[in-house]
């Protein structure tokens, strides 16, 4: 350690979450996914409500600005595919063989 206050500023934290402390808690789902809710809303494949409006695409996951009861993948939000926001992203998935 060089003693520089910013030496570790670019480091990535371990996968999991911090429950108000310094210890990482393993939060893997039964399907093996991590951190599915609480960071940003994620675009999902498919239609939000095809019958009502096929232009809407589903977002899931809940963002950092949502109330805790909305931080679940059960909740869906529908937006048009050209919607832009700092709170919307996507997740890359690789099937493990």
Describe the structure.
It is a single chain. The protein is mainly beta and 97 residues long. It has one domain (1-96). Helix content is 0%, strand content 20%. The protein has no helices and 6 strands. It has strands at residues 17-18, 24-25, 41-43, 56-60, 76-80, 88-89. A 4-stranded mixed sheet has the order 5-4-3-6, with no helix packed on it. A two-stranded antiparallel sheet has the order 1-2. Strand 1 and strand 2 form a beta hairpin. It is elongated and about 60 Å long. It starts with 16 loop residues before the first strand and ends in an 8-residue tail after the last strand. The model has no long low-confidence stretch (mean pLDDT 75).
Strand content: 15-25%
- For the largest beta sheet, what order do the strands appear in spatially? 5-4-3-6
Q: Roughly how many Å apart are the termini?
A: 40 Å
**Biggest sheet overview:** 4 strands, mixed
Query: How many helices does DSSP assign?
Result: 0
Elements, N to C (H/E): EEEEEE
Q: Output the radius of gyration.
A: 17 Å
Mean of pLDDT: 75
Shape: elongated
Oligomer: single chain
Helical amount among residues, as a percent range?
Answer: under 10%
User: Pairing-aware structural class of the strands and helices?
Assistant: mainly beta
Strand tally is 6
Can you tell me the residue ranges where pLDDT is under 50 for at least 5 consecutive residues?
none
Number of domains: 1
């Amino acid at each position: 350690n060089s003693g520089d206050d910013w030496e570790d500023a670019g480091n990535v934290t371990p996968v999991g979450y911090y429950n108000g402390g310094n210890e990482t808690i393993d939060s893997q789902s039964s399907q093996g996914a991590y951190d599915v809710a609480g960071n940003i809303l994620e675009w999902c494949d498919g239609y939000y409500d095809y019958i009502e409006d096929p232009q809407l695409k589903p977002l899931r996951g809940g963002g950092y600005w949502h109330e805790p009861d909305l931080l679940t993948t059960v909740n869906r939000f529908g937006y048009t595919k050209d919607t832009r926001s700092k709170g919307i992203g996507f997740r890359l998935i690789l099937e493990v063989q």
